[in-house]
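Reviewers asked in the last cycle whether our approach scales beyond single polypeptides. To address this, we selected a multi-component target totalling 493 residues and predicted its structure end to end. The input consisted of the following lines:
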Amino acid sequence: MKSMNQIPSVDLRLREFMDEDEGWGRDAGRITCQRLISFVERHPGVLIFRVTLTGVRRVDISFASETVVELARKHRGQKGFCFIDLVDVDQRENWEAAALRARQPIMSWGVNGKPAFLGVEPSQGSVDALMFALRKTEARAAEYAATDRSMSITNASTKFKQLWEQGFLLRREAAAESGGREYVYILIR
Amino acid sequence: MEPTIIRLPPRWTDASVLEDTLRRGPSPLSTLTSEVQFHIPKKCSLMTDAAVRLLSLLNQLDYSTRRVVVEFEASKDGVLPYLERIGFFQSLSPGVTVRPQRPSGFTAVRYRGSNPGVIEIQRIYRNQRDDSLPKRLTSAITRACEKRPDVKELEGAAWTILAELIDNVFSHSETRLDGFAALQVYPKGNCLKVAVSDSGLGMLETLRPALQSEAPKLAALRDVELIVEVFRQGLSRHGIGRGCGLKGCADKAVKFGASLDIRLPEARVLLLPGNQGYTPNRAFCYSGLPLIWGTHISFTFHLD
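The resulting structure, written as structure tokens, was:
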């Protein structure tokens, strides 16, 4: 396990949970998913699972749907799952189709550090908040509201909350500078 | 009682021609007939989609305790040697009578895998998944299409389509007989045909009960309309968030301009690709067809 700015994360090598280098079919996906769930449960303090596809030759849409996409959907808002080396075009299409169908966004980080979202896109009203979060590892509503005089902290907070509920971001509670409590929103990276 | 006789035409016979032939006569699985005879002339060239569909029908007739006879017009270079070559008779129920005589199957064994343009009929065992089946079928496609500039993309798309369709046989069909998959490249026809066939309940028979509660508007659609939506929207008896497999197949097939033929027990839809993918206005629908149990899907990819 490694920590990035105190955000506990771990690499998850999908191939280690598969019987073959090609994953296809719902039943095979469900078997793999059970193994993935056990892995996640063995890392209770980890917030972010960085999925690497090294050694995975192919997955079909049903398998994609039953494994990482299902895991991300099941843990939405609590734990985050992202891809860190999804370069194969065909695999990307299949993960995208599965994520879209489940209405579960999953971030895919390119080798150059550029992010892409698989699955649903953020709503028009919260795109800007997500772009703000993408520039930081952690984001607070007060910081985002400070970038636009016409935006209240409540408004900024609502946008972040929507992104959290939809699965784009994680969050944790922290002490605010004012002395109260506030949510810190975390990029799934 | 007189036997039901079905005569195939003396020409290239794909799934459409086979269906036209079946529609002209009584439904052999629905009637009380105790014997069904298929007459196949020497100039009848069965294409792979028709061969696999016919194979399933013959096995279903035999399973339903009818006497089944397939009579080939004698010829050294007709359809009989071709069917022997692709392993048709190894997959045909032993109870089906073949005239003038049933081939030994030796040719299929001898030439298995030697021609990159043809892959023998692959049995999809209903009780045991063959993990390497999509890979083997896809390898054949890759070998046959190796000169295409987009062979890499085609390989990936074909693997996904085959994996999803074969998985459907296990997941949805509750099949009573084994399913089959086959493909063949037709260089002169500039196309590649991929066919997967099972003898289960049929896609809509398992989907409709779930739609009654989850999506009553969809449940009210006619069979042929509902098939189009299965491939357009992705629908599943397992609820929202599932059912993306067949839609994903369709999305990939559209990229390669593939037409899609879906045969259900008594309905059939032929989907032709357009700029917007498969749409209802580019669907040719047939209902009230002679009964064939299961789901029979074939893709035809154009090779240029």
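Chain A touches chain B through 27 residues (CB under 8 Å). We regard this as preliminary and will revisit it once experimental data from Aim 1 are available.
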